[in-house]
Write a structure and sequence with these properties.
It holds the Pfam family Nramp. The chain crosses the membrane at residues 47-70, 91-110, 130-148, 155-174, 194-213, 251-272, 292-323, 344-363, 369-387, 408-430. The chain is mainly α. It has a single domain (23-430), classed as Amino acid/polyamine transporter I (Up-down Bundle). The protein has 19 helices and no strands. α2 (24-31) runs parallel beside α13 and α11 (192-205) packs across α19. The chain starts with 17 loop residues before the first helix and ends with a helix.
Length: 431
Amino acid sequence: METGITPPSTPGVPTNAWLEKLGPGVVTGAADDDPSGIATYSQAGAAFGYSILWTVLLTYPLMVAIQIISARIGRVSGRGLATNIRRHYPVSLLYGTVVLLLLANTINIAADLTAMGAAVNLVAGGPTRVYTIGLAAFSLVLQVFVPYKSYVRVLKWLTLALFAYVGVVFTVRIPWMTVASQTVFPHPSWNSAYLTTIVAVFGTTISPYLFFWQASQEVEELQAADEQHALKKAPSQGPANLKRIGIDTRIGMGFSNLIAFFIILTTAATLHTHHITDIQTSSQAASALKPIAGQFAFLLFSLGIVGTGLLALPVLAGSAAYAMAGAFRWKNSLELAPRLAKRFYSVIVLATVIGLALGFTPIDPIKALFWSAVINGVTSVPIMVLMMKMASHPDIMGKFGISGSLRIVGWLATGVMGVAVTAMFVLLAVH
C-alpha cells in the first residue's frame, strides 16, 4: 500500500493519545468472531463442553504477537503486507498468496451472509434471501460511500454487538468452579474429532485476512493524520505509536478471545449439557438455545450473529481488496472516493456479490466453509513466515525490527499454525 510519505517535522503522538487512537486492533479482533467463527466455537462447545476452553487461553498470546507484528509492519513501513511482499520477495509467491486469500475470503463472505440472513429470519420470520441481499447491500454502501474516518467509527460501534455473547452467559446457569478447573486443567480426549476441532479453532482464530487488514488499517490511520509519518522515516514518533499498537492489539485480541470463550461456554453449558452435540451453523446454535436457555438468550445470540457479520464483511472484502491493490500497484484507501480507486472498490464489490451469489447456489455452505478453513490454514503458514522475515528486514523496518519475546512468540505462533495445518492434512488423509 503506497503512501507517498515524506520525512516529518512534527513530534510523535503524545503518549496519552492511545485512547483516542484505539481502532485497528480492536476492530480486527472483533471481526475475528464473525458468524463463521461463531459456528466453529459453537460446534466446539456443543461437542466437547468445557474441555475445549483451554484452546482460547493458548491462542491469545499467539494471536497478540502475530497481529502486533502485522500492525508494526504497516505502521513502520507505511505500506500494507502485499506491497511489502511485492517489493522484497518473488512476485509468484505474492500472486499465489493473494489468489488463495481472495478465494477463502469470498467463501467466508458467502457463509457469513447466509448465517446473517438466517439469523434475521429466526428473529423476525419472513424471506431469508431478501434479508441476506439487504444486509449485503447495506454493508457495501457503508464500505464504498462512507469515508474511512467516519466508517471506522461505525466499525468500532459494531464491536459492541459481541457483548451479546457475554449477556447470554448471564441468562443460563454456569458451574463456574467446574469451568475454571477444566479450563486450567483440561482433560482432553485425543481422538480425531477432538483434534479436528482444535485445528478448526486455531484456523478460525489466526487467519490471513486479519494480518492484511490490520497492517492496512495502520496505513489508513497514518494517511488520515497529517502530522503522522511512517516510523522508518520518523523514528521520533516510534515509542508512542508502538506503545499504542501494543495496547490496541492486546485489547482487541483479548476482546476476541473473551467472546470466543463465552460462545464456547454458552454452548457447553446449554447444548452439550443437554446432549445436543452436533451443531453445524451459528443459526442452528441459536435455534437450539431457545428451548433450553429461553427467548432472551436466543435473541441475544441471534442478533449477535447479525452485528458481528456486519463487522466482519468489510474486513473480509477489504483485506482482499488491499491485498489485490498491493499486488498490482493500484490506488487503495477507504478514504478515497470510488472514482479515484475504482479497481480497489471493484474487488470489494465483486467479493461481496460473488459471496452473496454462492449462498444462493446448491453448494453446501458447511462444506464450503470447511474448505475455506483449509485454504486459510494453508495460506496462513507461508504468510506468517514471510511476516516474520519482513518484521526483521532492515529495508522494511529500519531500526524498528522486532526482537526479544515478540520475535520468539511470533515464531512460536507460526510453528503452532504449521503443526495445526499438518495435523489437518493428516486427519483428512485418515478420513
